[in-house]
Amino acid sequence: MAFEGLRKAGRRVSRPDLTFAVMDHNVPTGDRALPVLDDMSGKQMDALARNSAEFGITCFDYLSPFQGIVHIIGPELGLTLPGTTIVCGDSHTATHGAFGALALGIGTSEGEHVFATQALWLRKPKQMDIRLSGRLPNGVTAKDVILWIIRRIGTGGAIGHVVEYTGDTVEQLSIEERMTLTNMAIEAGARTAIISPDEKTFNYLRNALYAPQGDEWDAAVQYWRSLRTDSNAQYDTSLHFDVNNLAPQVTWGTNPAMTVSVTENVPSPEDFADASDKAAVMRALKYMGLQPGMKVTDIRIDVVFIGSCTNARLSDLIDVARVVKGRRVTPSVRTMIVPGSQLVKRRAEQLGLHRIFIEAGFEWRNSGCSMCIAMNEDKLGNGERCASTSNRNFENRQGPGGRTHLVSPLMAAAAAVEGRFVDVRELDLLNVEELELKGGFNA
Amino acid sequence: MPEPVREVVGKAAPLEADDVDTDQIIPAQFLKVIERDGLGRYLFYRWRYDEQGKPVQGFVLDREEFRGAGILVVGRNFGIGSSRENAVWALMDAGIKCVIATSFGDIFYNNASKNGLLCVKLSGESVKHLREKAKSGTLSLTVSLDDQVVNYLDGKIPFEIETHIKERLRSGLDDIAMTLSMYKSKIKHYEEKMPTFLMPKARRSPLE
Ligand code: SF4
């Protein structure tokens, strides 16, 4: 649509060298040698390819070896750099903030405006510090942290704010884990999220396809080191959470704030005093087909989806392998792994991860948004219940009538093996060395 | 770029509905459509077509006497809900140039002004009065933005409009043109001082 607007007004994309197109939302994740079945998606993909060619933009199309979910390939190709401003027509653009970039999701008209002017009108947002301290227990991940934060502050808790994650926990986290935190800040209503770049950030980008090289790399790193948050930085809102005793989290309802620990029970309407809260809980329980007060570990599942821009990077796949290596998924459960990018897929295959998954009974697919948004053929059936590593559990999000429980890759993998939710801390988790990956892996 | 709007002349069609959200104006299923032209086909889709996609008889814009109507007289809170700009595009593609209502959804109202769709706010009484008159299928209105007045055969109704919305409509400048006319050199200056090491450069051919 934005291209159409440009064309009508006789305008060009002002900086095609700084503009990239990616096919992700509706691409099929099956065999790429086969034609695209969904007519509307096929047309949309063709249009993007044509528009990219017409306006001189590099397009990572369906068949590109670098195709993937935009928020995963941006960083892994080195297009996402600290100190840059990034916009994309998708709300989870906040993900790129993990690199110290200001990354904003925008709408169609704004997209057209950026194409034509390389600028954007923005009201200055408020700033929120979310300081995390403590060490995550084994089996507890960044996904559990962000679900827990959203549970605590609500889906509107960060409205109007840019969230900055700070504190020793964030420093300990890997870049990919940090991306999970920034990715889901949107689910707390934040405009975007950001994390101060550090040596880990630079190492992640070093040698990426588009990252600066040689002298330019050195100049870049020198500049990036100057971007650290001031120790006396002021915020409009400051929150502090300790993660030392955090348990794995599972969403039970129809928004990401409807979350409990795996050790807890699903809430009952009676737990809430407010009439509208009661009604919301009742409605969510009905949609989700759950009994009030039942144990989370009694929830049986039909489908496991490992994928999305929240949790489909290499380290997420390694987490899955730590649970499923040498085990089998429950035969009645449909399980699929959709790597976040074709590069993630190739790297996983080089390490031999795909064998672990296939032997365990998982489907190993090509990359795309897939069942995160169900715009391609990967969908839940009516009433099907899914343990999903994605970011939204809204009604019908993963297919009409589908029921979504958001969890970490570790928890999703454990659910695949057991056929119901289990506390992954009670399983024997392999460590990375025990996976005996070819060539080794360094997080 | 939208045409400058100073005056809208056209036949008025009455739509007796309050709280029309953008999902009614154009359902989400049509958001995958890749061009703005032709969106008018999906305007008020759920009211005009049944579940099987067969036309429902009698929707106001499909009736003979309202063919070619360029002005829609509705109720209150028109265009609430999702921010989809497609709602404005669909109305304009169907030939609507002006919507008269008691109130509008914020984002819709703003989107409309960016696209050259004139939204006029009148009192509940005036809206009702015009809607009744329009039912005959013969009410012709001249909505003057310059004078801020709705003229018809036996009367005239003045209206208020925000200055910046009025100016945006009258100039026909869209946001892009406005940004470029005001800030082009600043943008250029910024781009010139952007360090080259932040510019993406593919090291190898992306196909290697
Ligand atoms: S994976 Fe899901 S959330 Fe992420 S960009 Fe795709 S559809 Fe959006």
List its salient traits.
A: 443 residues, alpha/beta, Aconitase, domain 3, Aconitase, Domain 2, five-stranded parallel β-sheet, 14 helices, B: 208 residues, 2 domains, seven-stranded mixed β-sheet, 7 helices, 31% helix
Explain what this protein looks like in three dimensions:
Chain A is built from 14 helices and 15 strands. Chain A has 443 residues and is of the alpha/beta class. Chain A has a 5-stranded parallel sheet with strand order 13-12-11-14-15. In chain B, helix 4 (106-115) runs parallel beside helix 6. In chain B, helix 4 (106-115) links the parallel strand 3 (98-101) and strand 4 (118-121). The model of chain B has no long low-confidence stretch (mean pLDDT 90). Chain B is of the alpha/beta class and 208 residues long. In chain B, 31% of the residues lie in helices and 15% in strands. Chain B folds into 2 domains: 7-173, Aconitase, domain 4 (Alpha-Beta Barrel); 174-208, no CATH class. Classes of the chains: A alpha/beta (443), B alpha/beta (208). The structure holds iron/sulfur cluster. Iron/sulfur cluster (SF4) binds at residues 24-25, 69, 71, 90, 92, 308-309, 369, 372-373, 390-391 of chain A. Iron/sulfur cluster is lined by residues 24-25, 69, 71, 90, 92, 308-309, 369, 372-373, 390-391 of chain A.
Give the structure's gist in a few sentences:
The complex is a heterodimer of chains A (443) and B (208). Helices cover 31% and strands 14% of the residues of chain A. Chain A is built from 14 helices and 15 strands.
Order of helical and strand elements of chain A: HEHEHEEHEHEHHEHHEEEHEHEHHEEEH
| CATH architecture verdict of the largest domain in chain B | Alpha-Beta Barrel
Number of strands of chain B: 7
Low-confidence stretches of chain A: none
> What is the rounded distance between the termini of chain B?
41 Å
